[in-house]
Design a protein that fits this description.
The chain has a single domain, classed as Porin (Beta Barrel). Strands 1-2-3-4-5-6-7-8 form an eight-stranded antiparallel barrel. It has one helix and eight strands. The protein is mostly beta strands and about 190 residues long. A hairpin with a 2-residue loop joins strand 6 (about 135-150) and strand 7. The protein is elongated and about 50 Å long. The chain starts with a helix and ends with a strand. It is about 10% helix and about 60% strand.
């Protein structure tokens, strides 16, 4: 229910800002970013009584960013980075919700940029699995991209998450993800 309220709130915020003409083709304004891509993730299930047990998975990666441009080169935003994958016949979600920033090397399109984010991490089963439990911890993301035309960029990033109390559970204690994303930034 909480996730559905977050999504509904983001949609209302987006629709309300679009009608207020917040998008002026300048990064120095209200921004909304959406991304989709691919991830490769290593799930680390090791704990004190078990030697390192790592499983590799891959799947769909998504990204949502909502914030402001302090200039045409520097943006601050709320971010939600998600990795979706199948394991054991169930669909799992793994990601990061937090704050992020990006620095563009040029104030115009055709610019390389760097971005960073930090916040809480989570891992959970899909709602259809009958299990309503999730594990939380902390995570960070580091990335670089290239805005090859106005609003559209290709981005590569590294996402590292640590989950608390994941020992002796079906949840990984740590994860490492490499992501390749195509992003669209409304500005």
């Amino acid at each position: 229910m909480r996730r559905q309220l977050q999504i509904a709130g983001l949609i209302l915020l987006f629709l309300g800002s679009a009608s207020a003409q917040a998008f002026n083709n300048q990064r120095q304004a209200f921004i909304v970013g959406l991304g989709i891509g691919y991830h490769g993730t290593d799930l680390d299930f090791s704990h004190a009584g078990n030697p390192t047990e790592t499983t590799s998975v891959a799947g769909l990666a998504t990204s949502v960013r909502i914030g402001i441009g302090l200039s045409n080169q520097f943006t601050l935003y709320y971010l939600s980075e998600n990795n979706w994958y199948n394991r054991g016949g169930d669909t799992w979600s793994l990601g990061l919700n937090g704050v992020g920033a990006a620095y563009y090397f040029s104030p115009r399109a055709r610019s390389a940029y760097l971005h960073y984010g930090y916040g809480y991490s989570y891992s959970s089963l899909s709602r259809n699995s009958g299990t309503d439990s999730s594990k939380f911890g902390n995570a960070y993301i580091l990335g670089a991209g290239y805005e090859f035309m106005p609003h559209v960029s290709l981005e590569a990033s590294y996402l590292r998450a640590n989950l608390k109390d994941a020992i002796d559970s079906p949840y990984p204690a740590r994860t490492t993800s490499w992501r390749l994303m195509l992003n669209y930034l409304f500005y």
